[in-house]
Design a protein that fits this description.
Rossmann fold, SAM-dependent_MTases_sf, rRNA processing, single chain, seven-stranded mixed β-sheet, 14% strand, methyltransferase, 14 helices, DNA polymerase, domain 1, 7 strands, rRNA (cytosine-N4-)-methyltransferase activity
Length: 310
């Protein structure tokens, strides 16, 4: 399946790209957002980050058809501030993050992201790192497996599945995605297996988050991205599950919404905020996009703007 950037128009509109602005795409992927940013900033510059070298190789060809005013950097987006400092950049006009796994990653059986294909357990965004899904499933103790299935997968059967994995691997390693799916199914009651949706979906999500340290990295990059915005600079973030969205919502509100005052205490004046929410509620896909791109169903776009100097 060809990758379609989710909420593309809405995201680019939210960034309000300046012709001579400095922008960062923290999740280059297949270049959909970067392409549109480059088209709108002919006198500006775009930095593109991705931990997947294959994504960089593919997207570079696409972006060169638009402009030479960009640089792709193979790194995790948690290194955003450090990477830009090396480039002599300490403030930007806009940053975009699309936190979804791209279609090519899901649809490449060898990457081991999907329960739809039989492949070695992998799930690494960055193929150069050592930690992968195989190590999680075959070396984590039952307590840690339960923790990530509960916290990152929000699976009500987390304990049962963790226990079954430990029992199974005592007999032989769990090497592939289909072997893991079989283990998961083997310990679930018929009423769970008959429910709509794949029974392994939440567990695979949990493993992927653990392998790639997704939530920890998100906290780091959001904090740094907010601090890098110039006056009138904008940050747009697309999330695909509640764990991500909760983090983004909380961190945006922390800097853009007045804290509720305790009326029992003397007030020292209203706190002056440096940021504002671009929209109070998340932007979601239009009916047309929902029909054309199934992966847009869970997407939520939130935006933050740094206020201009008075």
């Amino acid at each position: 399946m060809e990758h379609q950037s989710v909420l593309l128009k809405e995201t680019i509109d939210m960034l309000d790209v300046k012709k001579d602005g400095i922008y960062v795409d923290c999740t280059l992927g297949r270049g959909g957002h970067s392409e549109q940013i480059l088209k709108r900033c002919p006198q500006g510059f775009l930095y593109c980050l991705d931990c997947d070298q294959e994504a960089i190789d593919q997207s570079t060809k696409r972006l060169l058809k638009v402009s030479n005013n960009f640089k792709c950097i193979h790194t995790s987006f948690e290194n955003l501030k450090e990477v830009l400092a090396k480039e002599g950049v300490f403030g930007v006009d806009g940053i975009v993050m699309d936190l979804g796994v791209s279609s090519p990653q899901f649809d490449d059986p060898s990457r081991g992201f999907s329960y739809r294909f039989d492949a070695r357990l992998d799930m690494r965004m960055d193929q150069s790192q050592e930690m992968d899904a195989w190590k999680v499933i075959n070396t984590y103790d039952q307590k840690d497996l339960f923790r990530i299935f509960r916290d990152y997968g929000q699976d009500p059967n987390a304990y049962r599945i963790a226990s079954q994995i430990v029992k199974t691997r005592q007999q032989h390693p769990i090497d592939t995605t289909f072997q893991l799916v079989d283990v998961i199914k083997s310990c679930l009651p018929a009423k769970v297996l008959s429910k709509k949706g794949h029974p392994a979906k939440q567990i695979f999500q949990a493993i992927r988050i653990e392998v790639n340290r997704e939530l920890l990295q998100l906290e780091i990059v959001l904090r740094d991205a907010i601090s890098l915005l110039k006056p009138d600079g904008r940050l747009a973030v697309i999330t695909f599950h509640s764990l991500e969205d909760t983090i983004v919502k909380r961190m945006f509100r922390d800097v853009a919404v007045q804290k509720k005052a305790d009326r029992r205490l003397p007030q020292l004046g209203i706190e002056k905020l440096e940021y504002e929410l671009i929209s109070k509620k998340p932007v979601t896909a239009s009916r047309q996009e929902l029909e054309e791109n199934f992966r847009s169903h869970s997407a939520k776009l939130r935006g933050l703007k740094k206020l201009g100097a008075n």
